[in-house]
UniProtKB/TrEMBL annotation:
UniProt keyword annotation of Coiled coil present: yes
Protein name listed in UniProt: Large ribosomal subunit protein bL9
GO cellular component, one term: ribosome
Signal sequence annotation: none
Gene field: rplI
Family named by the database record: Belongs to the bacterial ribosomal protein bL9 family.
Domain Ribosomal protein L9 per the UniProt entry, residue ranges: 13-40
């Protein structure tokens, strides 16, 4: 079943993408939740017109995302966590903590756009992936220190 995404969906695609999904996933989840519309001929024509009108706006957004990515590459965040005698942390470092630390540095990035790929089990330096735009992805460094 072909659908047009109305929002970015992790692992599936970005807004205004034409994607193929299983019928049940499209009919029972994506379309009722308002995340997608059925890819009929009229909807495809509307999508093409919207893409044409938004082309110059998209370039501006991409340029802003590239500027933010360049600034993020230079930033090292400090995340505080309780560390036990064995050197392991209690709990875990979450994307919310990284998002809050970025907010204190002046970057407003949604926690859903941040992914920690390596498990953080103790103090040290780690990296997290940040998805700023469909074509702009970067890494941000963070250091876990004891409280």
């Amino acid at each position: 079943m072909e659908i047009i995404l109305k929002t970015d969906i992790k692992g599936l695609g970005y807004k205004n993408d034409l994607v193929e999904v299983k019928p049940g996933y499209g009919r029972n989840y994506l379309i009722p939740q308002g995340f997608a519309v059925l890819a009929t001929d009229s909807n495809k024509k509307i999508l093409a017109e919207n893409i044409k009108q938004a082309a110059h706006k998209a370039e501006k957004i991409k340029t802003e995302a590239e500027n933010i990515a360049a600034k993020l590459a230079e930033v090292t965040l400090e995340i505080k966590a309780k560390i036990g005698d064995s050197g392991k942390i209690f709990g875990k470092v979450t994307t919310l903590q990284i998002s809050d630390a970025l907010a204190t540095q002046g970057f407003e990035i949604d926690r859903k756009k941040i992914a920690i790929t390596v498990p953080v089990e103790g103090a040290g330096e780690f990296t997290a992936d940040v998805d700023l735009h469909r074509e702009v992805k970067t890494k941000v460094k963070f250091v876990v220190v004891g409280e």
